[in-house]
Amino acid sequence: MGGPATPSGSAPLRVLAAMSGGVDSAVAAARAREAGHDVVGVHLALSAKPATMREGARGCCSIEDSRDARRCADVLDIPFYVWDMADRFREDVIEPFVAEYAAGRTPNPCLRCNEKIKFSAVLDRARALGFDAVATGHYARLHDGELRRAADPDKDQSYVLGVLTADQLAHAMFPLGDSLKSEVRAEAAARGLVVAEKPDSHDICFIPSGDTQGFLSSHVPDAPGELVDAVSGTVLGSHGGVQNFTVGQRHGLGLSRPAPDGSPRYVLGIEPVSRQVRVGPAESLDVWRLGTEAPVWHGGAGRFDDVTVQVRAHGGLAPASVEVHDDGLAVTLRSPLRGVAPGQAVVVYEGDRVLGSATIDATS
What we know:
ATP binding; SH3 type barrels; Elongation Factor Tu (Ef-tu), domain 3; 7 helices
């Protein structure tokens, strides 16, 4: 099991199992209990106005999810509570998400939810109540306090956990880290958990429609600007606001014609002050260097020449060298990445071990 262990003959740990209402968190709670820990289930109510039903695999934290989590807790015979975290979630995840897009950056709300909600607000409250650890259904492994990739490469979630501090990792449990997703579903069915075949959640949980642009348009006032060819400087058109764009975007640019050579144009850069969106050819998306801020680092001081960096939850990997500074990481890629935007997180790996992370604030 990834996380604090129960030594032979010692008292079990008090574990708070975060139960989303899905199959992964239910099996994680079951395994923590089976390992001999004293487990209490908690469902986080993150929406001020939860929908009665989720939309298939989109969204989460609905009334349906809360009820599914309670049913699973009943089967596991563990206490169960619902914690209202809607205000904290709005302040720490939704509002920064909107502000980042309005500033021309591209945030990852799942990563910030882990950082600010599950392993800050929830863990802080759990420890104040006397719990030793928080268990979640994330696919990642912990060995000797170090975060590592999961055994299932298709489900690995170490990227969105890369922002956690050493103290937070010391009080975390990831019981699914050594398992394949297929094994987790089979175990849920064998345990009689109603969520065994429940679809996984996709996209951004607080935008169940999947229409991120529509969501942002309802939260950010229109601020028209220019679409500019990054090569020639020619103004190609106008737009309603920089929140509608992200670096690497190809579709939905509102351009009436392609480049002179017929090739498509992509968003290369966003200037929030001038509200100018620069577009150009795909090859101009190549990034070789990353400047960062807000580092969370576990690897020690110095330069690391044989590491891998990841800039998206799924994909976006490249070999790199990293120089560690007090205020950030200087990352030089050995092969270029495309579609890298300020606001994204870069997580640094040595093999399958997470050395640390930082937020990208500049690319070149």
